[in-house]
Structures are given as structure tokens and as C-alpha cells.
Design goal:
Number of strands: 8
CATH topology of the largest domain: Translation Initiation Factor IF3
Number of helices: 5
CATH superfamily of the largest domain: Translation initiation factor 3 (IF-3), C-terminal domain
Radius of gyration: 31 Å
Strand content: 25-35%
Structural class: alpha/beta
CATH class of the largest domain: Alpha Beta
Oligomer: single chain
Order of helices and strands: HEEHEEHEHEHEE
Largest sheet: 4 strands, mixed
CATH architecture of the largest domain: 2-Layer Sandwich
Number of domains: 2
Distance between the termini: 85 Å
Helix content: 25-40%
Length: about 190
């Protein structure tokens, strides 16, 4: 069954060990009853006595059909899960001597990721002796963060971890002005006069 994960969480009917319980439910006045009386009330209403708050003193029980109760719980959990926002982290890799064309290409992708609500983790990977250019890598990442200032805020400044220097950026809140960062330029044509 799909409800197996929820089934073991609540005690029902004879599984309830308390001597007295507070009974709540539809068309029932909330009051404290001995467990025997609460079980009789459940039989009279043709439903189950479900312990919904075992840590309360006395424990709170509800008169409801148990399968209906499980259905409501599952539906509530599904609604909560739907309301959660998933944030993806997109990675962008640079080399210490990344040229302008590659940089602009990756910058454009980062803008798209940030506008889509994703976080961006940019890193410079140092291969072999290129670790000597740590300063160049840091300058590159700071330039990257500066160019994305309209779209993102810096979560973590550049930090060197092994052979990687990383920086983390998260998107700014919705409603921020959006303008294209890279404007295509037409080639200049010489005219003879």
C-alpha cells in the first residue's frame, strides 16, 4: 500500500495506552474521557479513535475513519511538497587564462541560469603548474561577480580549495531590473570617400 509509511505513526483504537484522552472530531464537543468511553464513542459513530497528539497531557485523539485520516495527511504532505522551491546549482568552469570570447559566452549562460532562479558556482581549475596563476584566477572570478552584479549577489567570495578556486552566486529577488549584459555589435565597415 502507498500509505504504509504513514500507517505506523499513529495508534488507533485498542493500541492507545493512556487511561484518559481528550476527544475531538466533527460534531463532537472536545472533552476528556476515560479510554473505555472514548472507544465506545468511536463505535457509536462507526469510526476509529486515532491518537493525533500522543505527547499532550492527556493525549489528544480524534474520531475519524482511519483511512480518511491517512488520505488527508498524505494530501497535506503532497501540498507542502509542491510549495517547496527547488534551487539548482549550476557550475561554470574557467581556466586561469580564459580569453574574452569564452568568458562572455559563459557570462551569458550564467545570466540565463540566474534569471531562471538557479544558483551559480563558478570555478577556476588549475592544472599542473597553472596554480602559479592564483591571482589571475581570483581576478577572473571577481570580474565575473562584478559583471553579474545586476543579476546576482555573492554568497561566498573566491576561495581556493585544492586545485579549484570557487565563488558562489545566488539570484537577486524577482523584480530586479533586467537588461542584457552583452550587446551584439555590428562589424565596422570602412566607407571610401
Amino acid at each position: 500500500m502507498k500509505n504504509d509509511s504513514l500507517k505506523g505513526q499513529h495508534r488507533i483504537n485498542e493500541q492507545i495506552r493512556a487511561k484518559e484522552v481528550r476527544v475531538v472530531g466533527d460534531n463532537i464537543e472536545s472533552a476528556v474521557y476515560p479510554i473505555a468511553r472514548a472507544l465506545r464513542m468511536a463505535e457509536e459513530h462507526e469510526c476509529d479513535l486515532v491518537e493525533i497528539s500522543p505527547n499532550a497531557v492527556p493525549p489528544v485523539c480524534r474520531l475519524i475513519d482511519y483511512s480518511k485520516f491517512l488520505y488527508q495527511l498524505k494530501k497535506r504532505q503532497k501540498e507542502q511538497k509542491a510549495k517547496q522551491v527547488k534551487i539548482n546549482v549550476k557550475e561554470i568552469r574557467f581556466g586561469p587564462q580564459t580569453d574574452d570570447h569564452d568568458y562572455n559566452f559563459k557570462l551569458k549562460h550564467a545570466i540565463g541560469f540566474l534569471q531562471g532562479g538557479d544558483k551559480v558556482k563558478a570555478y577556476v581549475f588549475f592544472k599542473g603548474r597553472s596554480i602559479l596563476f592564483k591571482e589571475q584566477g581570483e581576478v577572473l572570478l571577481l570580474r565575473f561577480a562584478n559583471d553579474l552584479e545586476e543579476y546576482a549577489k555573492v554568497e561566498q567570495m573566491p576561495i581556493l580549495e585544492g586545485k579549484r578556486m570557487t565563488i558562489s552566486l545566488s539570484p537577486k529577488k524577482a523584480g530586479a531590473p533586467v537588461k542584457p549584459a552583452i550587446k551584439p555589435t555590428a562589424p565596422k565597415v570602412k566607407t571610401e570617400e
